[in-house]
Amino acid sequence: MMQSKGEQRRTKMLERIKQAGKASISELMDITESSIATVRRDLEALEQSNLIIRTIGGAVYDEGSGRNNAAELAFADKRSVSKEGKERIAADAATLVEEGDVICLTGGTTTFLIAKALKNHQNITVVTNAVNIAAELFDAEGVQVVVSGGVMRHKSYELIGPLAESVIEKLNITKMFLGVDGVSREHGFTTHSELEARIAQLFIARSSQVYAVYDQTKLQKSALFTIIPYDGVTGVITDL
Fold it and tell me: Where is the HTH deoR-type domain (predicted)?
């Protein structure tokens, strides 16, 4: 079967990324003779197929089993994993929230459940870069919601990029609840996306307290990008 022009272009891009282990956007524009917008769309398609991992300036090849191994799943696929444990984590996190707090929730199934647990709180502000968390809180009358803006990653619903960064740099956050893809003493708290790691790091820099929230399935697993070292957070909330 003949490939379409788009398939041929993505095949060429994947071969370059696989051969070198990584490639920049400018390299991929050159070898495919494509615009930056086309290359970015193609990288998104390759990432959704679990073939590459996007970075700030391009992409790296996803070797899958070489990382001890926190595989990236879409939000919908993760919702049912350790659900009872995540609900306990969310309930415990909600007890830390006080009237007047500015709370940050990054994307993830555990932080989504924290948002649900905060819906009856009064006079708090929730800052998030996750569109599904913002949507969950739309009818919470006592909660002011601030959304960072940016470009959405489809797997996580998280907003990333320069627009998000410019908003976060102006915020002052009381308590941050950090969702992660992996936890280990060696690599700290990790995530699959360099772009999401960058956003989380900016949130951390603007937060007085940072709590990592994760269920036991994340223990001793490492995703590709470290967000913060293991001892860099105020505390952890887990279901152990």
Answer: 6-61
CA 126 – CA 146 distance, rounded (Å): 6
Q: Give CATH for domain 75-238.
A: 3.40.50.1360
Taking the model in full, what pTM does it have?
A: 0.72
The tens digit of pLDDT for each residue in 153-179 reads: 877 889 988 899 999 999 999 999 999
> Identity (one letter) of the amino acid at 107?
G
Where does the chain have alpha helices with state H? 5-20, 25-32, 36-48, 75-78, 83-95, 109-117, 131-136, 162-168, 194-205
In Å, the largest CA–CA distance within the chain is 62
CA 56 vs CA 39, 147, 159: distances in Å: 13, 21, 13
Phi, psi of 24 (to 5 degrees): -90, 160
The length of the chain in residues reads: 240
Task: Output the six-digit token pair for 69.
Answer: 């191994």
Radius of gyration in angstroms for the set of CA atoms belonging to the chain, rounded to a whole number: 19
Looking at the structure, give the CATH architecture of the domain made up of residues 5-61: Orthogonal Bundle (1.10)
Convert the pLDDT of each residue in 41-74 to its tens digit. Answer: 998 888 877 778 777 788 887 655 344 445 455 5
CB atoms within 10 A of CB 70: 21
Round to whole Å and give the CA distance between 121 and 141.
9
Residue intervals in the chain for CATH 1.10.10.10? 5-61
Residue at token pair 């891009």: 13
- Provide the CB-side half-sphere exposure for 30 (13 A, CA): 7
Q: Which residues pair with residue 143 across a beta bridge?
A: 124
